[in-house]
């Protein structure tokens, strides 16, 4: 298939997915709550920039399972499978040939630090979904990291336009300690929902708990509801 034709297909599938999840996305807490818990100026999503219980930091702390996998670009692969019409196993070059998005967003860690206005570049989860075409039965994704980490996200959260698989932060390749070469970010959920060193995204027909979710952290992780634990 021609590159231009491939892109057109992704754009068409993206529009369809957006329409399919539009109503559900509107009903998510970080879009619909009219009394969000938090303080500070209104952020780009209409929420107070500092969710309740959070403190702004300028530094960027590192959290991991005690192991930072080393993934070279030639060995890097991204598998997207499960409840999809068109499973893929992308190489680095194939990933970088997908539509690229620049976005500025905030990062809220459940351990109470938030870092604001982070400048990212990467591929929207929405565009990856458009590529693989989730079946009607898909309701959640499970993300897997090269370090064995897992975390689950509902489709209506995952398909928001600021959920990205990022490879660039502040104009530079994402550092290994922060999940480089590629990690996911979830600005409207606590940051543990974004897998560092992401390796696989599995579309699921029902919810399933990830690493922290199985250990007492919230399934849903809404910062403006102080939704930290289950
Ligand atoms: N693969 C993987 N992803 C992960 C983690 C991890 O241990 N492994 N930790 C999570 C947690 S708890 C947080 S707060 C953020 C931290 O990202 P940072 O280390 O870049 O600040 O990554 C999340 N993603
Ligand atoms: Mo965290």
Automatic annotation (TrEMBL):
<feature type="region of interest" description="Disordered">
    <location>
        <begin position="30"/>
        <end position="55"/>
    </location>
</feature>
<dbReference type="InterPro" id="IPR036374">
    <property type="entry name" value="OxRdtase_Mopterin-bd_sf"/>
</dbReference>
<dbReference type="InterPro" id="IPR000572">
    <property type="entry name" value="OxRdtase_Mopterin-bd_dom"/>
</dbReference>
<protein>
    <submittedName>
        <fullName>Oxidoreductase molybdopterin binding domain-containing protein</fullName>
    </submittedName>
</protein>
<feature type="domain" description="Oxidoreductase molybdopterin-binding">
    <location>
        <begin position="69"/>
        <end position="212"/>
    </location>
</feature>
<dbReference type="Pfam" id="PF00174">
    <property type="entry name" value="Oxidored_molyb"/>
</dbReference>
